[in-house]
Design goal:
By secondary structure, this protein is of the alpha+beta class. The protein contains 4 helices and 3 strands; from the N terminus they run H-H-H-E-E-E-H. It has a 3-stranded antiparallel beta sheet.
Length: 126
């Protein structure tokens, strides 16, 4: 039997994980959204809403406005499409695709079939 010499570390609250002085990654945005969603569902949103809005604002400021997004309510998983503002009128619209999904759901759902036409970001029709 193995004994613990040192106690396990307590989980770090999400507010302390996302520093306000750096550009948050999409993963950090997903974690902030999931923390807000869980707090909202438990009836005690607390600081989670303001933390999420802060992370979202900093994310959009650097990577563009969220046009469409899908947030999983059971796991820290999401996909989003962003639009990066044009610097000049003649430039084409630039879109960004962000995802945080493979690691969260791949263990739970086995693929229905394997096809080169299917990738992890699209749905396969059978």
């Amino acid at each position: 039997m193995t004994e613990l010499i040192e106690p396990l570390a307590a989980p770090v609250p999400h507010e302390e994980m996302v520093a306000a002085d750096h550009v948050p990654s999409f993963t950090e945005l997903v974690y902030a959204h999931f923390a807000w969603w869980r707090a909202l569902r438990s009836g005690a949103p607390g600081k989670a809403g303001s933390v999420y809005q802060d992370v979202l604002g900093r994310f959009e400021e650097s990577r563009g406005r969220l046009l469409h997004s899908y947030w999983c309510s059971e796991f820290e998983s999401a996909v989003a499409l962003t639009e990066v503002p044009r610097r000049h009128r003649w430039q084409r619209r630039r879109l960004g695709f962000h995802r945080e999904s493979d690691w969260a759901t791949s263990w739970r759902y086995a693929p229905r079939r394997s096809s080169p036409a299917c990738d992890s970001a699209s749905a396969c029709n059978s």
